[in-house]
Amino acid sequence: MTAPTLNEPRETGTSTLGSLTSAQLARLCGVAGLSPVDAKTYAAVLAEALGPVAERPLHLPPPSRTFLSDDHTPVEYSLSFLPDGACALRVLVEPGCAAPDLARNGRVGLDVIRDMAYRWGFSTDRLDELEDLFLPPAPQGALALWCALELRPGGIPMLKVYLNPAANGAEHCAETVREALDRLGHGQAFASLPPADGYPFLALDLGDWESPRVKVYLRHDRLSVAEAAGLSRMDAGPGPAEIERFLRTASGLGESAFGDDLLDVVGTGSNGEERLTGRPVLTCHAFTKTSVGRPTGFTLHVPVRDYAAHDGESLSRATDLLRAYGMDPAPLPRALAAVTSRPLEDGVGLVAYLALAHQQGRPPRVTTYISSEAYDVRPPAAPRPVTAATATG
User: Residue 275 in contact with residue 269, Cβ under 8 Å?
Assistant: First the structure.
């Protein structure tokens, strides 16, 4: 079963990638409280960012094997929730997804970013400073450049650019991240990062940000709860108990409703500690102050789609987390319905990540990442039989 079939009964005329994703985004704008005028503007911006691939018919395969989403849709959405009831909408896109190679992919993405900068009157100086590091003539790795638009009232978004530390080879990731931080004035930042198994992204805020961030994303393979609890390096950030509660709830540790194929993704170490052995947890460490080495932001990204039987479970966990933080969960099911009409129990991956974000001087945020499913729906996991041990325990 494919997502276009599921969406067609509700929305006619969604026969191309651009028309489907623009319609999804316009509906999500309504959920986030943006005006119809803003929704129309941002839907057009998304289509423009996709470029010629926006006209690609959905009956054709995805334009590339992008890992931005599981079904290779080059678009992803997210809703970030705050205790005051507001939620912010963001859309992530790979502008160069149809390019024949990574070098051209990056050049297309860079051109799109510069066009946006000219259109909205912001500087690309920080990105220009890193161009040779992340967009070399023969880049390596799994991506070149992604951009995210944080959508605000008024039709002018805030922009984030995601770059690949493996562009000069995976063995040079740490060196590339360190050099990038040095160039941007954060010479002490790299030493403050916790241990990690990889550096999947470096991200920059461009545009009208109050405190523009440089963000370093870290990958943590086979993470245990105890290890996760100690990953924040920001002052006045989340404590170990808060991180552990979020991780346990988002990943479902201790639940008995996982499918058979998920039994292997929550494993135990030699000392009996629980470890997440499926898709790795990511952390993001944000730097805004060049005068100090410690990060001013920390985000824990849990790939809930690898640790749930279906999206109904993922929604339930997200709802529990939002309520725990005093946030209204009502927009989330509306947002999922804005993307697809399929029953949540029919797939897993519509809710891709659940994230806990702390930023100095601001209340914590809970963010849900939502897949477009333009090309495919990942099947749900089979329910695990209830054993005598779980029934009586």
Answer: yes
Position 157, amino acid: P
State whether residue 80 is helix, strand or coil.
strand
| Whole-number pLDDT of residue 253 | 86
Alpha-carbon distances, residue 50 vs 139, 152, 177, 196, 304 (angstroms)? 21, 20, 28, 33, 27
Cα–Cα distance, 59 to 64 (Å, whole number): 14
Query: How far is 291 from 200, CA to CA, in rounded Å?
Result: 26
Amino acid sitting at position 270? S
Give the SS3 label for residue 137.
coil
Phi then psi for 32, rounded to 5 degrees?
Answer: -80, 0
The residue written with tokens 């530390």 in the block is 165
Q: Count Cβ neighbours within 10 Å for each residue of 278-312 and write b for 16 or more, e otherwise.
A: bbbbbbbbbbbeeeebbbbbbbbbbbbbbbbbbbb
- How many alpha carbons lie under 13 Å from residue 219 in its C-beta half-sphere? 14
In whole angstroms, what is the distance from residue 135 CA to residue 145 CA?
Answer: 8
316-347 per-position pLDDT tens digit: 999 999 999 999 999 999 999 999 999 999 99
Cα separation, 379 vs 71, in Å, equals 12
Residue 352, token pair as written in the block: 């891709």
Name the residue among 290, 316, 111, 109 with its Cα closest to residue 213.
290
